[in-house]
Design goal:
single chain, about 325 residues, alpha/beta, 11 helices, 12 strands, binds ligand PBG
C-alpha cells in the first residue's frame, strides 16, 4: 500500500495514539542498580566520574537498598572496595569484606530485595587485573579457585545470586560446582558472558581504582570487532550452568544483544555501563542534550534490542521518569 493510500504518520498524530502502538515498554521490574560498597561507617560520597552514584559504607548501603525497593526496583548488584589491595585480591573472598558485610546487612533489613554480587578480583588486586598474575600473563586456572572462594563467601553472607565478570575460561562451571558442593544448588549465576574489552568502563575503573597497572584486559575480555564469538561465549556459559547471560557494554553492542537474543531462550541481561552513563551525564551538564529524554531513549533502545534485564546506574531516575509518564 504505497502513498497516498497508506500513511505511517496517521498513528503518530497524538500522544495517546503513539502510546497505543508503542512496541517497547520499559518497566521498573527489569532494572538492576549497581552499588559501590566501601569499608567504614557513615560514608556516602559521590563518585566524581559517576555523578549521582556514591561510595557507600554498609550502613548507608542499607539506606540506599530501602530506597531501591521503594522505587519498585527488584535487585541491586554489589561492587566492593577493599581496605588494601594485594596481588591475590584477598579481600575479595574475606568473610568480613565490605561486600560480604553489606550483603548480610541488606538481606537483614530488606529481605525482599534481590542482592546480586559481582564476582571479580580486579577491585582487590594491586595490579588491577581480574586474575592471578605471573609476570605479564593473567593465569586462568589458578584464578578459578579464587573466584570460587569469592562467590562462596558472597553466598555464605546471604547473596541471592552471583555474577562473575572476570572472563576467565571455565569460571561459570567452577563456581557452579563449588556452590553445588556446599549445598547452594539453588543460587543462580548471572554470567557476564559476552564482556568486551571496552573503553566505556573508564568511569567505573576510576570509581574502584581498578585500572590495570600494566597491559590491558584484551587477553581475557572480548575483541569489540567480534559478534559471532559472543554467541560462542554465551553458549559455553550456558553449558557450564549459567542461569542468566549478559552482554556488556550495551549501547555500542545492540547488534550483539539482538544476536544473542536469537541464540538463547535464557533471560538476557545487558549492562548499560559507566561510560554510557557518564556520556549522557556529561553532555547534559554542558547543556548539549536533554538528560531525561536521552536516558529513556537509551534504555528503551537496549530493551528493543532484546534484553530482559538492564543493569543501569540510571535505574532510580528512570523509574521516577516512567512514573511521571515521561517520554523521549
Ligand atoms: C570487573 C567489572 C568491570 C565492570 C563491571 N565489573 C570493570 C572492568 O572489567 O574493567 C564495569 C562496569 C561499568 O563500567 O559500569 N571486572
Amino acid at each position: 500500500m504505497p502513498f497516498p493510500t497508506y500513511r505511517t504518520r496517521r498513528l503518530r498524530e497524538s500522544p495517546a495514539l503513539r502510546r497505543l502502538v508503542q512496541e517497547t515498554h520499559l518497566t521498573p521490574s527489569e532494572l538492576i542498580l549497581p552499588l559501590f560498597i566501601v569499608p567504614g561507617h557513615g560514608i556516602r560520597q559521590e563518585i566524581a566520574s559517576l555523578p549521582g552514584q556514591y561510595h557507600l559504607s554498609v550502613d548507608q548501603a542499607v539506606t540506599e537498598a530501602k530506597a531501591v525497593v521503594d522505587h519498585g526496583i527488584p535487585a541491586v548488584l554489589l561492587f566492593g572496595l577493599p581496605e588494601s589491595k594485594d596481588p591475590l585480591g584477598r579481600e575479595a573472598y574475606s568473610p568480613t569484606g565490605a561486600v560480604q558485610q553489606a550483603v548480610h546487612a541488606i538481606k537483614q533489613a530488606v529481605p525482599a530485595l534481590v542482592v546480586i554480587t559481582d564476582v571479580c578480583l580486579c577491585e582487590y588486586t594491586d595490579h588491577g587485573h581480574c586474575g592471578v598474575v605471573d609476570g605479564e600473563r593473567i593465569v586462568n586456572d589458578l584464578t578459578l579457585e579464587l573466584l570460587q572462594r569469592t562467590a562462596l563467601s558472597h553466598v555464605e553472607a546471604g547473596a541471592d545470586m552471583v555474577a562473575p565478570s572476570d572472563m576467565m575460561d571455565g569460571r561459570v562451571g567452577a563456581i557452579r560446582a563449588c556452590l553445588d558442593d556446599k549445598g547452594y544448588y539453588q543460587i543462580p549465576i548471572m554470567a557476564y558472558a559476552a564482556k568486551y574489552a571496552s573503553s566505556f568502563y573508564g568511569p567505573f575503573r576510576e570509581a574502584v581504582q581498578s585500572t590495570p597497572q600494566f597491559g590491558d584486559r584484551r587477553s581475557y575480555q572480548m575483541d569489540p570487532a567480534n559478534a559471532r564469538e559472543a554467541v560462542r561465549e554465551v553458549q559455553l556459559d550456558i553449558a557450564e550452568g549459567a542461569d542468566i547471560v549478559m552482554v556488556k557494554p550495551a549501547l555500542p553492542y545492540l547488534d550483539v544483544i539482538a544476536r544473542v537474543r536469537q541464540s538463547t531462550d535464557l533471560p538476557l541481561a545487558a549492562y548499560n555501563v559507566s561510560g554510557e552513563y557518564a556520556m549522557i551525564k556529561a553532555a547534559a551538564r554542558l547543556g548539549w542534550l536533554d538528560e531525561e529524554r536521552a536516558m529513556l531513549e537509551a534504555l528503551t533502545s537496549i530493551k528493543r534490542a532484546g534484553e530482559d534485564i538492564i543493569i543501569t546506574y540510571f535505574a532510580k531516575e528512570a523509574v521516577r521518569l516512567l512514573e511521571r509518564g515521561a517520554v523521549w
